Description:
Layout: H1 3-29, H2 33-47, H3 58-65, H4 81-101, H5 105-116, H6 122-134, H7 138-151, H8 156-223
Amino acid sequence: RSPGAMASDVEAQIAQAEVHKQQGNAFFKEANYKRALGNYHKVFCYVNGLQLPGEKSEASSYADMMGRSMGAGRQVPVERVEDVRKLKQSTHLNMAACYLKVSEHQKCVASCSKALADGQLSKAYFRRGQANLELRNLDEAKEDFEKARGLEPGDPAIEKELKRLKLAFAQHDAREKKRFAKMFNKMSAEASEEPRGTAEAAPAASGEAGAEAAGDATAEAREG
Length: 224
């Protein structure tokens, strides 16, 4: 096929991926997160087969494993590289928003990390921080929220989540303090019981020895 025809195919794939993203956005607004995720996944069915300059697509990597060549037919035109990068990044970010809504927090963390692989975004750090907070990964959440605040200083949503995080740390510290206090009290109780047990054993032993001595004395008197 001619280079022009192959370039047209690439443009068609990008266009179809963008359509699925828009459909996903529409379902998200309707709070239909399952169908939104379905459309966002379809975006990658189209763009993952494309090859960015200097990178290997998933299809190209598979072809290399099979000892075949993909050629340049799926190469993204230079003028469209940034569009494809932003499309992938924003789709990962939208998937993260869906996963937050359905409480799939580990998947949200993964989607945000993929979005951040294409460049720093305050929203990606923010949503990953929210997911980490729900997972009680408090140190990771703190790092994410601080990075988000560094990119968007004064954002009220970020400040609100930092307050929630501060409360979560306080609750965690209180639970740990209570747990250690309970453990210490148990150890103290066990330590205080041990000497009393030894003291009780001593009189018993003395009593047995006295009984044996009395028995010996009686026996001697009989013999005499």
